[in-house]
Amino acid sequence: MLIGELVKQTNLSRDTIRFYEKMQLIHSITRNNGYKDYPEQTLQQVQLIRTAKNLGFSLHEIKQILAMTAQQEIPADQVHTIFQEKLDVIDEKIAQLNQIKMMLSRFTQGEPCPLRKDCPIPELN
């Protein structure tokens, strides 16, 4: 299918499709006339990219997942590990954000401002 059809079916922009191709998340075949032809499996790949992005995966992580799925279906225990690792990262980010929230809250309640030269800036873990 041509890029216009892929854009229609995925509701993505041409720029996004081209960016995914540049990042080697999807691939096309260049026809003799110079037009790019995207295989039917590109629709499933784009759906996987969207789902993974919505779950918080980076494009780099998604590229690794796509490479695994290109070889074979990912075993359930490996999918579990991937999800658990992402949960661990999210839990760590939540902890950091909660710490930042507590510090900002203290500053709004009268603690000395850490943005002045004479106030030390607390370290985050």
TrEMBL record:
Q: Does the keyword Protein transport apply?
A: no
Pinpoint the HTH merR-type domain residues: 1-68
Q: Cite the SMART domains for this sequence.
A: HTH_MERR
The coiled-coil segments of this chain are none
Pfam family example for this protein? Answer: MerR
Keyword Plastid recorded: no
Any single GO molecular-function term of the entry would be: DNA-binding transcription factor activity
Instruction: Give the record's keywords alphabetically.
Output: DNA-binding, Transcription, Transcription regulation
Q: What is this protein called?
A: HTH merR-type domain-containing protein
Can you name the source organism? Acinetobacter venetianus (strain ATCC 31012 / DSM 23050 / BCRC 14357 / CCUG 45561 / CIP 110063 / KCTC 2702 / LMG 19082 / RAG-1)
